[in-house]
Write a structure and sequence with these properties.
Elements lengths: L1 E2 L6 E7 L2 E6 L2 E6 L19 E5 L5 E5 L8 E5 L2 E5 L14 H12 L6 E5 L5 H8 L3 E6 L2 H13 L7 E5 L2 H11 L5 E4 L4 E3 L5 E3 H12 L9 E6 L6 H15 L2 E11 L6 E12 L2
Parallel strand pairs: 1-16, 4-5, 9-10, 9-12, 10-11, 12-15
Antiparallel strand pairs: 2-3, 3-4, 5-6, 7-8, 13-14, 15-17, 16-17
Helix pairs in contact: 1-2
Length: 290
């Protein structure tokens, strides 16, 4: 498993009974987590002293409960050269997936060692963690997400990280339609990052279901890869989609286009309380042969 163990201002303290206990900066949060199926004793006293907790509804969704007025509008998390704003958001989210640090470190290393200009296409880019990492490493980034508000959040993260003057294009669009237009335009990218949701809707109401759409989407995306590519990263939080399945998809698409190496694994976060790792999805990587 690829484990995001280098955080300084984020910490997964414990996980039990379907919930995780986390520290974001100086604040403590409790959120649902379907992977934490074990029923271990909650001995850490912070379980009884959260600043906020997300309660899932039996009808779907849920809501946050806040216990202290001291909680700011947002919290700034610093990790080396990266800075992100996080806050309680809809459907239990905080605006950042800390387990993705392992992928940001991987892409950062490849971009810095490429010794050439790199163009990155970041699809389903959310609040821009991967955009911040790629841009900080020196790449020109095209950031695509269907939510205008989320794209603004990504811009705020770039400003916090001091890279808002870097070459980053922010586009609010349906990712499939954007890729189709880029194919017609003949635009190419040296690296592609994809973090598709299990289910979603585009700005025009376009429906996305990962089980039926992923393969044809990745196959189309391979057409915008440059003739001198660097890497491809595919990430998923869909429980029924294994790391090996995603690796196969990359092999059948990008692997047929260019010679390179693919790998895949679960990604996770270490739990301070017991030293175990909480699974947090899977990633598949394609890297051009050196």
């Amino acid at each position: 498993m690829w484990v995001a163990k280098d955080w300084k201002e984020y910490e997964l303290i414990d996980a039990s009974y379907g919930e995780r206990l986390e520290r974001w900066g100086d604040f403590i949060f409790i959120r649902p987590d379907p992977q934490a199926i074990w029923e271990t004793p909650r001995t850490n006293p912070l379980w009884d002293k959260p600043d906020a907790k997300y309660h899932r509804s039996e009808k779907g969704g849920g809501q946050w409960e806040f216990y202290h007025k001291k909680l700011p509008e947002h919290i700034v998390i610093t990790q080396n050269q990266y800075k992100f704003k996080v806050k309680p958001m809809g459907f239990k989210h905080m605006g950042l997936f800390p387990e993705q640090l392992v992928n940001w470190q991987w892409t950062d290393n490849l971009i810095r060692n490429a010794n050439r200009d790199i163009k990155v296409l970041n699809l389903f880019a959310y609040t821009g963690g991967a955009t911040v990492a790629a841009s900080s490493a020196g790449a020109a980034v095209c950031h695509i997400d269907a939510s205008k508000g989320i794209v603004q959040h990504a811009k705020d993260n770039a400003t916090l990280s001091g890279i808002d003057k870097n070459p980053i294009r922010y586009i609010v669009d349906d990712c499939m339609k954007f890729v189709e237009r880029e194919i017609r335009r003949g635009n190419k990218y040296d690296a592609i990052i994809m973090d598709p949701p299990s289910y979603g809707r585009g700005p025009g109401g376009e429906v996305w279901k990962i089980e039926t759409e992923l393969y044809k989407f990745v196959k189309s995306t391979a057409e915008v890869l440059s003739d001198n590519p660097l890497f491809v990263l595919l990430n998923s939080y869909t429980t029924g989609l294994s790391a090996a399945t995603m690796q196969n998809v990359l092999e059948m698409t990008f692997g047929k286009k260019c010679s390179g190496n693919t790998s895949s694994d679960e990604i996770g976060l270490p739990m301070k309380e017991n030293g175990l790792v909480l699974p947090c999805g899977s990633s598949a990587r394609w890297e051009r042969e050196k």
